[in-house]
Here is the input.
Amino acid sequence: MTRLAIAFALAAVVGCSGSAKPTTTSGGSGTPMLAKKVSVSWGISQQGDMADLYLQTTDETGAQVSHELGRWKGTCAVATAAAGMNALIAVDCRTGGTGTELQAVQHGGDEIIVMKLGIDEGVAPDPMAREEVKRIKIPLGAKIEAGS
Here is the structure.
């Protein structure tokens, strides 16, 4: 009986003595890959010379949430933000050579800020002239990618 108790104790010590290291999948750089991702895209509902805009977030499970951004004047279409704006995605609402551009910008690790900027053809856009429209929370540390 004593030998049996010693054998169990010895087995427990041997089984616990090895330090198990957690395994992670890395992207080749030695850093763990993020477990979550969020894809952002625009939702545009054009109605005449006005458009209802939405920022749509889709997580890795396919769950989508539409964040209402209001009604904007002009014909709206997905655009490319000017260099230096650090925008993930942009949408322009134009009436002739003027209008408004909305940009989705990552802020910190847990939110996206939608910013608006006036458009005037022939005038270089100023990143400091942007105004905040809405803040949208996302999971902390989620990888954000621009959707189509």
About this structure: The chain has a mean pLDDT of 81.
